[in-house]
Amino acid sequence: MKLFQHAASFASIAVIAVITAFTVQVKNTEDINKKVTAFQVDGKNSKLLWTARKVTGQHEGTINVSSGTLNIESNSLRDGSFKLDTRSISVTDITDKETNAKLVGHLKSDDFFSTEKYPSADFVITGVKPQANGHYDITGKLTIKGITNSLTFPATVTIDKNILTAKAKIKVDRTKYDIKFRSKSYFENLGDKVIYDDFDLDITLVANAQ
Asked: What's the whole-model pTM score?
């Protein structure tokens, strides 16, 4: 009888050991699958194109992406952030050097981005809602001229080996960042000198796994 009890106890211990080992293995597998990989934004290969419109036409240009990190967990975007160098703002649709320089100087002035006082703009992801096939609805906080507002927009994220590419098109209301120059929302009788409140950002971030 005692021999039977010892055998039963040994069997119970063996079963518990097997279950424990299996549980640990499953947990380890889950931990591996949930591993967070940080992708460092490559400023040289990333780009931001801006478009601003007025009654008489539009202007286009670029702003350099200075830094950023995007975090991937379980093959899905988890969070991230990036910075823009506002001092690098350029105009690409005006070929005359003097006219181009004049507009760039105006964009850097207090009428627009005050780049001397605010040399960077920042975006921080606060929410990620995955959709199908690498598509996401992104919510985050955009800071321009020290003023922060929340934005939500669609984006795509693809990963090829150790390189991540994120793309998004964002519409920004400049007046929310104290950029009111020639805005019909704040000034009357501007006629054809109106500059529309919304401007577009076409962003491509290229990042490398760390």
From this structure: 0.83
